[in-house]
Model the fold of this input.
Amino acid sequence: MASSLLLLTRSRNNLLLSLTRRDRYFPFQSKRNWNSLTKAIPQFRLASSRTLNSNSSKDTILMNMSVIRRQTTSATNSPNPAENLPKKVRSKPKTSNVDPETKKAIRRLTFISVVSGICFIIYSGRPFKTDRENQYKDLDAFTAWYKRLEGRTKDLFHFFTEPPSDKLLPDQDSLPPPPSPYTLVINLDQTLIYSTWDRENGWRTAKRPGVDYFLFFVANFFEVVIFTSQPSYVAEPILVKLDPVGVAPYRLFRESTRYVEGKIVKDISKLNRDLSKVIIMDSNPNSYSLQPENAISVPPWKGDPNDTFLIDILPFLEYFVLFSVNDVRQVLPQYKEKNIPAAYAAWEEQWKEQQQLEWEKKLKQPKKGLASLVSAFSSGQIQEQVPPYKHSLMQRQMINDEINNLYRDYKRRAPEIQQMYESSMENLQKQMQESMKEKRTTIWELITQGPPQVTMPDSPPDQDSLQLNPLQQPYSRSP
Done:
């Protein structure tokens, strides 16, 4: 009985305490409703005290509490709901925290931007000062203005989606004669190198097995161009370490690519070279999608130390020069989606057998007249002659041996050659800087036309002194 009275007393005290905290438990009460509620509290106290003194039942206490609930509920049902909201919750006029001076500055900036945009649009439709204006002479004023605006807008986007020039390489007439009329364009990423990144070591770059010998070898047969889709500020430091002496003197970067249908494309038609003599080696099919008939598909290299593709492909590349192929686009499509080193090795074996059969057939043919008389006296010498195709193979082997000897000498003299090349490049850079000073361009020309084209100096780095192109004698052009 004592414990029950104690619990009832605590419940009464807690209820009275909760009723007095109107901000916490009755946040939507107005002052008038609060007064009505406070009038009900003494009645509750009286009822609860009578109940405790008379040891009433639990049902009586619940009945008294229901009375309090009805009174509080009627007090909250105010005809004006807004009066039930506390002062902090009542609607107030929205005030901005922005300083008035800042608002004025924003308005002025917006006005200046709109006016500047309108003026720029109007100014972009001005007449051209070149022969380009002739195509608008038959149009009315508004249509001609719109066409000029459209043309200049395309020129603006052209800077971001097209190469800076239609001639990415200098004219061959202004350069020393190359080893052959063929140009080999080589990709960098996953073709010659492979880059990885981890949190412990950061970026690390590995060279594909045989890349040093590969570059030195093809530099004796082709005009070599390394063309990467990486920006120059990313790829140039890698190329300096990969090719410190400039075995491949021509290097093109992301700035020289095109952006076609959401893909980065290397348009080799802008190399300023005959496409019938251009070969591109790339591990990304999107890169040569415009000229697939000029491409050699390279298996992407991702760090395999046992990879031998660069060495295995050399006989196939050598074939174009030794056999003097008129148009590479007639040969390369035959090896599409094939293992090129294996397919070419099989073709060469078949070609040897065919040449041997033709040679033997030629020896067995009967000769008439004076030819038969001469053959009678020199029949023994004829049998000892070597077929022409073997002469070509022997010549190729001699060239390969010479290149191997030069490569060993090149590796031995690498520090000296590197120093010579760096000094030559410093002189070249100084000449180009002096030429740049003479070229002046406006901001609009820089945006729409790209950087000015600088004329190459008359004295490029001396490749002969570096022993990079040692083969001066012409090759045998027929098997």
